[in-house]
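Hi everyone, sorry if this is the wrong subforum. Our group has a chain we'd like a structural model of before ordering constructs, and none of us has done structure prediction before. Sequence below.
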Amino acid sequence: MEMSTQDIALGMGIAIAIGGLVGVERERKAQQEKRPSFGGIRTFPLIGMFGALGGLMSQSFGTLGLAVPFVGLLALLLGAYLRQPRDEQQPRLGLTSEISALLVFCLGAVPFTHTIPLEFSERVVLAAALGTLVMAALALREPLHGLAQKVSSEDLLATVRFALLAAVLLPLLPDQTWDMFDSLNPRKIGMVVVLIAAVSFVGYVAVRIMGERRGIGVTAVFGGIASSTAVTLTFSGRAKQQPELARVSAFAIVIACTIMLPRLGVMIAAMHAPLMETAWPLFASTIAVGVAGSAVLYRIAGKRGETVIIKREGTEAPQRLNNPFSLKQAIKLGIAFAVIRFVAAAAYHYFHEAGFYVSALLAGLTDVDAITISATRMYAQEKISAQVANTAIACAILTNSLIKSGFALFIGGRRVGILVASVLIPTAIVGIITALLT
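Answer:
Right subforum, don't worry. Here is the predicted structure as tokens:
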């Protein structure tokens, strides 16, 4: 299919833009480190244009039209690398710039390569997205190297083992139900474990990147993605040790528990997106109340002079935060989900909606993830209505909020417990009311 002049101009523009962004980053890095660089702000846009021309030629000459310029660029890069001075005292080129140049060439060719089974507009978006990832990988060098230094051997082994299990064992699990309620499917349970662990791992990695000491607000946000319960226990303990920090500890706990809400929304969207069409008022209202409550606690802490601690003083990363990719955590998560899934299905089978709500309330005593995904799957299977699913999720949020308020009260003391409960419980009540009305 012939391309219009506008399409060619757009594709060329994307190729040059990708090359320009990468070139700016490479030149800036070379100047900072005072070392030679293969290319910079001028060279990389030309390489992107070179790739775009190769993609255009492939439309007339087939694969050869793209392969010849690619091999030519590869030869130039190899020659530049081999012609470096042998003096060990002089800085030498690394491979990052050379690999970046090859990627810029390939991304420049993507919009014009018809062998990619996508429409032109989709190929442009693909090139832009991949270019953004390349730019991010280059720009985040220091944080990524910092993460590599902070990752323990236990974390690395746990992640590798989990990846192997997910890639090898998960496809081998039987894709069939083992109970009369159509609730226990080993493969689907395994997929849920992978999903929850992956979402939690984002927060876990963020906390590790931040280091051992960071601002309380930042730690609470990313710690809440990994485990709001861990954050609650950690900051409740800190409030007990330092009673003068009760208000700021309550602020951190409420922030972490509020972050749990969009986290649940992400999991629902990943499991069965149509449920979010009716669940969004539940999450919007509860998040709004949680954010408002956090702002009030921040203001209270400010009047007591504690906001300086939130902004500047560090805090230890949640000590009870375990690697969600550890085999032990995965097994515990799988068992918990299977039990809650079975109990919820059985309760609905024998006691209908009332039984399902009771099971959701009980499930919230330990975790909200499992009952949320159970309700989502039952809605996807058309066993329950959207309102029943949303109300069950709200019930789990209520009991979970009560439990965390109890942790704050009995571990952190009366003051932090009252402050946490004054936000979490109204948030959960608003959620139940919203679920019943929508």
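For your construct planning: The longest strand covers residues 213-215. The chain has 16 helices and two strands.
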